[in-house]
Design goal:
Helices cover about 20% and strands about 15% of the residues. By secondary structure, it is of the alpha+beta class. The protein has a single domain (about 5-135), classed as Glutaredoxin (3-Layer(aba) Sandwich), CATH 3.40.30.
């Protein structure tokens, strides 16, 4: 299965998402977006394909969001995307793209929506100890 993850290895949610993808043996294309940001076209498409607004795709915590005045409601989507491309830390993560769709996987288990059901095998527990999949590979609520 062709899977791409825009990943930040310093982010627990991103690490858990990557582990969920790899759990059934899928080896995704991993793009460390802080080192290799997406193009304008790719970022715009990912946001649209995930069904998000540009503001929903911006990360505020731990970023220059406030310093750049990005909370100004008069800023256009194009201005916000320009800021995200200039400061990739503003791109919320992780975005995951599969043939089944695109998701901003926050929380990490949202990635399960775009992985084939037959790929979900056996138990999976997040770094913090939260159980996501039971022994039968079924999602735990």
């Amino acid at each position: 299965m062709d899977v791409t993850i825009y990943h930040n290895p310093a982010c627990g949610t991103s690490r858990n998402t990557l582990a969920l993808i790899r759990h059934p043996g899928i080896e995704p294309t991993v793009i460390e977006y802080l080192k290799t940001p997406p193009s304008l076209e790719d970022l715009t498409r990912m946001i649209a394909d995930a069904g998000l607004t540009v503001r929903e795709a911006i990360r505020e915590k731990g970023t220059p969001y406030a310093d750049l005045g990005l909370d100004n409601p008069e800023l256009s989507d194009a201005e916000l995307i320009d800021a995200m491309l200039a400061h990739p830390i503003l791109i919320n993560r992780p975005f995951v793209i599969t043939p089944m769709g695109t998701r901003l996987s926050r929380p990490s288990e949202l990635v399960l929506e775009i992985l084939p059901a037959e790929a979900l095998k056996g138990p999976f527990t997040k770094e913090d100890g939260e159980v996501v999949l039971d022994q039968d590979g079924k999602r735990v609520s």
